[in-house]
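A favour, since you know our C-alpha cells better than I do. Go ahead and set the record down below.
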Amino acid sequence: MGMLARIAWRNIWRNPRRSWVLISALAVGVFCFLGGIAYMDGFTLQMIDSAIEQQGGHIQITGRGFHENPTIRTYVADAAPIASYLADVEGIRYAPQVKAPSMISSAEQASGTVIVGIDPRRELTVSNIPDQIVEGSYLSESGAENEVIIGVGLAEQLNVLVGERVVLMANDLKNEISSGAYRIVGLYRTSNSNFDKANVFLHSDVARSLIGYGSNQVSAFTVNLDPERNLETTAADLHTAIGSPDLEILTWKERSPLLLLMTEMMGIGNVILVIVLFTAIGFSIANSFLMVIFERIREIGIMMADGVRPGQIRRMLYLEAFFTLLMGTVAGGVAAFALITWWNSVGLDLSAYAEGLNSFGAASVLYPYVDWEHVTSGFIMIYVMVLLSVVYPAFKAGRFEIAEAMHHV
C-alpha cells in the first residue's frame, strides 16, 4: 500500500494543470457547502432561540389545555409548590407569568394585545426582553406604579411615546370588563415584529389585579435549561415530580411542531445541497479519470505484465482520487472557516429583507453557526460521492488486456 500511495501521489502531479482544476473544483464545492449549511443552521438556531425566549422557554408548565386555548380560566391554581420545586433543581431557571388577551388604547388608536404579567427579577433569567429595551427602562421590581413596556411597533401603531399613558382592558374571572391606565416606561424591539406588536409587559401583581387572579395563581411557568441539561429527560423528571391531571408540561418541540418540522427540513436541505454540488463535481472527476486511464493504457499494461494485480491498479486510482479530494476539502474548509469566523463577528446584514425575516422570528443580521454533526455527515457524503465517481474508471482500468494494453499507441 505504501508503494501504491507514493505512485498515486506522483501520478497526481504528472499533469498539474488538470489536478489543480480538480482540486479547485472540490475546494469551491466544499466552500459553498460549508458556507451554505452554516447560514442555514444559523437561521434555524435564531428561530429556535426566538421561540424559546419569547414563547415559553425550553419547557412550559401551564394548566391543562392552555396551549390550545390560552384563556384566563385555564391557570395554575397553586403556584407555590411548583415554584419551590423548580427553585431547588440545579440547572433550571424559571419565571411565572400571568397572561390574558386584552385591548390596549391610546388617545388616537386601539389594538388587540396579550398582557404578560411578569416578575421583573425572575424574568431576567429566562427572557431576552430586558436586553431588548431600546428606549426608556425596564419594569421596576416593586410594581408599585402601573408600569408597562410595549414593543416599538405597537408604540408606532398607537402613536405613543415613553412616559405617556395607555389604557388596558380585559375580561376578568367574573366575566366583567376590567380596565386601568398604565404609564409606558420602556419600549422594546425583538427579532420578531409580530411578537412586538402583540405583547405588553407589566408587573405580575398588577396583571393579577386586572384579571382577578389570586396571589398564588399564574397562567404559566417558563422554564429554561442550562446547556448540560437534556430537554426530554428534564421534562420527564418534571412530569414525575409535579405532574398532575390539572397541569400540562410541554417542551418547545411539542408546542411548536411547525418549527420542529422546519428544522428537519433544513437538515434535508443540507443533504440536497451536497447532492447538487457534488453530483456535478463527481461527473467532472469521473470524466478526468477516464482521460487519465486512457492516457496510461500502455503504462497500466506494463504494470500488469510486471505482476501488478487489477485490484492494485484500482486501489492506486482510488488513492489518487482520495489525495485530490483531501487537498480540495482542506483548501475549501480552511477558506470557509476563515470566512465564517469573520462573518460570525460582523454578521450578514440582511436589513433589506428585515420584515420578511422578522415574521420568521429571525433578526435582520444573521450569524453563521457550525453544527459539527451536520458538517461531519456532509463530509462523509462528499467522500462517498466523489469516490463512487471513480468506480467506473477504476473498474475500466482493471479490465485491460495486458497484450493489447502494452501495444497501445
